[in-house]
Write a structure and sequence with these properties.
87 residues; mainly alpha; 3 helices; elongated; RNA-binding; rRNA-binding; ribosomal protein
């Protein structure tokens, strides 16, 4: 249990920040799944459009430190490779 006023405040802040980061991670995963779903349909143009939206979400979370920049780059690379593989 937090004993000082500062520690109590930091505990309150961490609960709030954890909830915010959780929703951000959910948005990340949803964006990735959305791209994968469009890739399965085989529509390359639609996949590229959805990919661009996903990249915005992924980069924003990497910049804010929710995810490591290498994890963001890895996801973008793999999604891009799947789109390029479409005929």
């Amino acid at each position: 249990m937090a004993n000082s006023a500062q520690a109590r405040k930091r505990a309150r802040q961490s609960v709030k920040q954890r909830a915010h980061n959780a929703s951000q991670r959910t948005a990340f995963r949803s964006a990735v799944k959305k791209v994968l779903k469009v890739v399965e349909t085989g529509d390359k143009a639609a996949a590229q459009a959805v990919y661009q939206e996903a990249v915005k979400v992924i980069d924003r979370l990497a910049d804010k430190g929710v995810y490591h920049k290498n994890k963001a780059a890895r996801h973008k690379s793999r999604l891009s490779a799947k789109i390029k593989a479409l005929a």
